[in-house]
Structures are given as C-alpha cells and as structure tokens.
Amino acid sequence: RSTHNEMEKNRRAQLRLCLERLKGLVPLGAAAGRHTTLSLLTRARLHIQKLEDQERRALHQIEQLQREQRHLQRQLEKLGMERVRIDSIGSSLSSERSDSDQGESPCWGMD
User: Would 56 be classed as within a structural domain?
Assistant: First the structure.
C-alpha cells in the first residue's frame, strides 16, 4: 500500500511540474493568476490551434512567393534571351555597315 501511495505522490508531482511548464509556454492573458487544470489545458489547446493556423498561413505565403519567384525567374530568362538576340542583331547590322563602308567613299560635297 505504501508503494502505491509513493507512486501516486510522484505521479502528481510530475503532473504539477508539467502543468507549471505548460503555464510558462502558454500565454495566459491578463488573468494570469491561479488557473484550473482545465482552463490551462483549454488555453493550451487554443494556443496550439492559433500556432497551427499561423503555420498554415506562413506555408501558403511561402508557396505564393515561390510561385512568384519562378515566374520572375522565367521573365528574367526571357529578357536575357531577348537581350542576346538584340545584341546579335545589332552586331550583325554593325558588321554589315562596316563591310559596306569599306568599299565606298563618302559622297559629301563631291558635286
């Protein structure tokens, strides 16, 4: 019988310790005085639900930002390809002009 009483005493002490730790983790609001075990567990459940909602919103925002990043990356790649194309057209025109300039003399004031 005394062994059982000792075990029960330890169990209750462990439970009190866990409830005290929980009290330190859960925001209790203005009425942070003495709470019943039920009210503490209820507040802990609500706090966990709030944290889960925040996590869901954060994950959703991360997904949105990743989609936006991929979209912007594709746009950047398109602009880079467009720039290369424009640069190559410009250099082709430039070399064509220099080829034609070599064979002809300017006609300014020749009349």
Answer: yes
The pTM (predicted TM-score) of the whole model is 0.60
Length of the chain: 111
**DSSP 8-class letter at 26:** S
Cβ atoms 59, 42 nearer than 8 A: no
- The domain total for the chain is 1
Provide the residue range defining the domain that includes 48: 8-24+38-90
Contact predicate 44/22, CB 8 Å:
yes
In a domain, 30, yes or no: no
Output 87-92 pairs: Cβ under 8 A, ≥24 positions apart. Answer: none
Q: What is the pLDDT of residue 30?
A: 67
Do the Cβ atoms of 28 and 47 come closer than 8 Å?
no
**Residue 19: other Cβ atoms inside 10 A:** 15
